[in-house]
Amino acid sequence: MGLGTIQFLLKHPLSSKNKWVSFKRLISWQVASRMAGMPMVAEFVNESRLLMSTGMTGATGNFYAGLHEFEDMAFVMHALRESDLFVDVGANIGSYTVIAGAAVGAKCVAIEPVPSTFKHLTDNINLNGISNRVECLNVGVGKERGVLNFSSTADTMNHVLMNGQRANEVGIQVCVESLDDVMRERRPSIIKIDVEGWETQVIAGAQHILSGLAPLAVVMEFGGGGKYGFDEERLHDQMLSFGFKTVAYEPFQRHLKSLGGCRNTDGNTIYVKDMDFWSDRLNSATKYTVLGVAF
């Protein structure tokens, strides 16, 4: 139990409303996970569940605080509808996919390149009984079809390995597809991208999808593309050139706030086409219960 985790809970917008619940969960997880020595099932959004093990920082953050990435997860939760298609690029164990597929009931494509993590993803899909709504793909996503080396022992931080990085990390070879090829003519409503710095290549392979006129939202982490020689400001400008606006979401107020074309410097950046469309979606969404709070 580190100081960083305690500070995270104290500052988190949701857990700060139920500090005693969050800290009770923190302590119970620290004790129970060590005693059990095996994955454990935890309650998530509404009646959905997550299968978690020690060391899964994103998953345990969801257990402690309700929603680990509060604003972004709440945006996906409130903005999606059952008729929508959600695409989770860099799905990890499937936290976002479970929100979209189990809590909301939307159709999903969940993409996770690392086989061991992909197993955790499919376990969570099966645990929630949503395999009929979720297509799971054990591939990487990039500019074009090929093969890349990925790290495999860094939990949520697994990433593409370039030649100079392979000496210090255990690497595996993974087949890679472009997002345009994966989706073909399917049109997603929301795309989440969390690929630890490889975002520039993902966007390069999603030109057809992103240039469409239909309302679309992208929740994207800027994860340190500089280590690959990518210019993240150029990537951001490219997103704006597709017609996206940058916004911040305030879940308790259901308020979508324009960032005036700037990136979010604290966490993921939410890009939307047709801000009025998404504002209406968010305001008309049903309430969901997370950590005992309905909002």
Primary descriptors:
single chain, 295 residues, alpha/beta, 8-stranded mixed sheet, 4-stranded mixed sheet, 35% helix, 23% strand, globular
* SSE topology string: HHEEHHEHEHEEEEEHEHHEHEEEHEE
Terminal Cα span: 29 Å
Count up the domains: 1
CATH 2nd-level architecture: 3-Layer(aba) Sandwich
The amount of beta strand, in percent, is 15-25%
Mean pLDDT across all amino acids: 90
Shape: globular
CATH class: Alpha Beta
CA radius of gyration is 18 Å
CATH topology: Rossmann fold
What structural class is derived from the secondary structure elements? Answer: alpha/beta
List segments where confidence is low: pLDDT < 50 over at least 5 consecutive residues: none
Adjacency order of strands in the biggest sheet: 5-4-3-10-11-14-12-13
- State the helical fraction: 25-40%
Can you offer a commentary on this structure?
The chain is of the alpha/beta class and 295 residues long. The chain has one domain (3-294): Vaccinia Virus protein VP39 (Rossmann fold), CATH 3.40.50. It contains eleven helices and 16 strands. The protein has helices at residues 3-11, 19-36, 57-65, 70-79, 95-104, 115-127, 179-183, 199-204, 207-210, 232-241, 275-283, and strands spanning 40-43, 49-52, 85-89, 107-111, 134-137, 140-142, 146-151, 160-161, 171-178, 190-193, 217-220, 245-250, 255-258, 269-272, 289-290, 293-294. Strands 5-4-3-10-11-14-12-13 form an eight-stranded mixed sheet. β15 (289-290) and β16 (293-294) form a beta hairpin.
